[in-house]
Amino acid sequence: MQTVTVDARQIREAVTMREAIDAVRGGFVDLAAGEFEMPTRTVLRDGRFLVMSAHHRATASAAIKTVSLNFDRVPAIAGTVVWTEMGRADTLVADAATVTSLRTGAAVGVATDLLAPAGAGRLTLIGAGGQALDQVRAVHAVRPLRELTVVTTAPPRAEALAEHLAPELPGVRIRTTTDAGSAVGDAEIVCCATNATSPLFPERALPARVHVNAIGAFRPTMRELPDELLADSAVVIDEREAILEESGEILHALGTGAITESDLTELGSALTAPNPPRAERTVFKTVGIAMQDWAVTRLLAEKFLP
Q: Distance between CA 181 and CA 48 in Å, rounded?
């Protein structure tokens, strides 16, 4: 029996964003087909510790992630993802912070590819924390960017992020601002990656046609999006049970009557439907599910296990 440990650098060198997007897309399709055994994640200390697990029936493989979250430290996410297979005793242990950022970006890439207008190239990113880089990379992989606006209340962080991204985005105009309302006004795609507890912008600030990804709020007490936006959009989610347990903006909108559960479409179902959701405004809301960790860690297992 051998245990292979994979660190952040090795993950980045081994898995491209395009590979991660393809893997996560396949995972969502399999999820819709009932190929996963995936309990709702265990939440301890009001979301400070999370345990997530997924078993893929077809391959008799599983991934279990255990993390702690602390937004006052760097990195905010710390922990491991453990990969096991029924057919062999070798296991893989991967850095959870890197897997989480990569798989969250990949899910946004899948949703953006399905829902954003063809040719959309103006992205507004709200938040410049640990998830920000992979949000931009994922969108750029499926909708090559012309313009990027980074919004944060901490200008030095936005400027550092812009400087880091510049070599990866040649020819892309990058600017920073602290005003989310004005920044989303001409966006074609918006990514929200914050730990906000109230909406980041009013619905009226958005253009008539836009795709919005919201990844930051993962507890019922957190919200990034206003009810009015959800009511005015085709809303696609990662997984219904997880969303109804944890998504603050969805729970709030359901509570006010802005939307009903029938307004929610799971991404896996949208990917396999003959007619994917179409609307002037689309929203992808994810709280993160264990299948995504499984999908990326499977790529690592294929590359690193003997």
A: 30
What are the tens digits of pLDDT across the range 55-97?
999 999 999 999 999 988 888 899 999 999 999 999 999 999 9
Q: Where in the chain is the domain with CATH 3.40.50.720?
A: 117-288
Helix (H) or strand (E) holding 6: strand 3-6
Separation between Cα atoms, residue 289 and residue 273, nearest integer Å? 21
Nearest to 190 by CA among 170, 211, 206: 211
CATH class of 3-100+291-304: alpha beta
* Tens digits of residue pLDDT in 5-55: 999 999 999 999 999 999 999 999 999 999 999 999 999 998 899 999 999
Q: Look up tokens 């009903």; give the residue.
A: 260
Distances in Å between the Cα of 227 and the Cα atoms of 38, 160, 201, 262 are 29, 32, 11, 16
| DSSP H or E run through 112 | helix 96-115
Q: How many CA atoms lie within 13 A of 250 on its CB side?
A: 31
Shortest CA distance to 205 belongs to which of 179, 227, 184, 229?
A: 184
pLDDT of residue 72: 86
Which part of the chain has CATH 3.30.1780.10?
3-100+291-304
* CATH 3.40.50.720 holds for 117-288: yes
| CB-based contacts of 66-72 (< 8 A; 24+ apart in sequence) | 66/96, 67/96, 67/97, 67/100, 71/129, 71/195
Q: What is the pLDDT of residues 232-281, one digit of tens each?
A: 999 999 999 999 999 999 999 999 999 999 999 999 999 999 888 889 99
Contact criterion met (CB below 8 Å) for 264 and 250: yes
> Can you tell me the distance from the alpha carbon of 71 to that of 77, in angstroms, rounded to the nearest whole number?
8
